[in-house]
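[Discussion] Sanity-checking designs against the backbone

I'm trying to build intuition for which residues belong where. Below is a structure token string of 126 positions. I'd appreciate it if someone posts a full sequence so I can compare it with mine line by line.
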């Protein structure tokens, strides 16, 4: 099985000893993406805006790997407050239209940079 590291400047760089994504065989495993604007290095205000930027960051990584949102088979959404579920879900639905991946959504104690949302994905690379 071949393993390839995926990296793009169109998404925020890793802030620790990990890769933005790893393509292993027919699958792409993308690390969790906060809603950091890659141009400014800052988080926008609010869970919905952070979810949108997070999913744009995911999209940049998917594109670099040669796949799209339609190839995503599993997502995990981390929320710092489950009360933001509805707002984040509405944003999420605007990115996944054709193929709805399996998903987990969990509230956690704290995200890096005091973020509200983080999204990680697994995609199938045809």
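Best answer:
Here's mine. Compare freely.
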């Amino acid at each position: 099985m071949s393993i390839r590291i995926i990296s793009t400047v169109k998404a925020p760089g890793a802030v620790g000893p990990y890769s933005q994504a790893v393509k292993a065989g027919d699958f792409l495993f993308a690390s969790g993406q906060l809603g950091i604007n890659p141009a400014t290095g800052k988080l926008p205000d609010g869970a919905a805006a952070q979810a949108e930027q997070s999913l744009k960051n995911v999209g940049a990584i998917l594109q670099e790997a040669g796949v799209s949102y339609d190839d995503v088979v599993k997502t995990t959404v981390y929320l710092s407050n489950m009360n933001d579920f509805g707002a984040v879900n509405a944003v999420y639905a605007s990115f996944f239209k054709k193929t709805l991946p399996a998903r987990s959504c969990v509230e956690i104690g704290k995200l890096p940079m005091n973020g509200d949302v983080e999204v990680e994905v697994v995609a199938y690379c045809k």
